[in-house]
Amino acid sequence: MDISEARLDSLVSRLSEGLSVEIKTWIDPKAAEGIAKITKAVIALYNRDGGYLIIGFNNDTLQPDREDAPDDVKAAFHVDVIQGIVSRYSSISIEIQVAFVEREGLLHPVIAVPQGVTVPAAAKRDLNDNGRMLIREDTVYFRTLGSNGTPSTSAIKASDWPDL
């Protein structure tokens, strides 16, 4: 996956969510909900044959989210932290890369998910947070238009199988 400075600048300067790009507001990679969002997004992008998870932007306005940025973005989203999350919950070894790009004075993590799917990835364990099931074991997550007509991550449906 290309994480050159030119590619990162291109992604962030023309920010747009699509089947190979997922945009999230700030999330906490130590909290169960943040772990679930990272896991589902990485598995879904992997199953769609790679892409990028871009963090720290408002999903609706696509402007930098200034509200909940961690004090140390590079430490919070260090490749070892993110790789640990992915390795713990993905049935397939997915070697991600993490890069950082600046926009309007804020540093944003970009998680690059590789191409080259040979076997679909699924969640290999549940993640339950106070009775809420955030990740379900054996679920195959996928970037699809099938859930609501816009690019989103969800459990794969039969209608998405041809794209897997």
**Content-based structural category:** alpha+beta
The helical percent reads: 10-25%
Give the count of helical stretches: 4
Strand arrangement across the biggest beta sheet: 1-2-4-3
Taking the alpha carbons of the first and last residues, their distance comes to: 18 Å
Estimate what percentage of residues fall within beta strands: 15-25%
Regions with pLDDT < 50 over 5+ consecutive residues?
none
Shape: globular
What is the typical, i.e. mean, pLDDT? 94
Could you give the order of the helices and strands? HEHEHHEEEEEE
Radius of gyration: 15 Å
Biggest sheet overview: 4 strands, mixed
Describe the structure.
The chain is α+β, with helices and mostly antiparallel strands and 164 residues long. 24% of the residues lie in helices and 24% in strands. The strands form 3 sheets. It has a 4-stranded mixed β-sheet. A two-stranded antiparallel ribbon has the order 5-6. Strands 7-8 form a two-stranded antiparallel sheet. Helix 2 links the parallel strand 1 (21-24) and strand 2 (51-55). It is globular. The chain starts with a helix and ends in a 9-residue tail after the last strand.
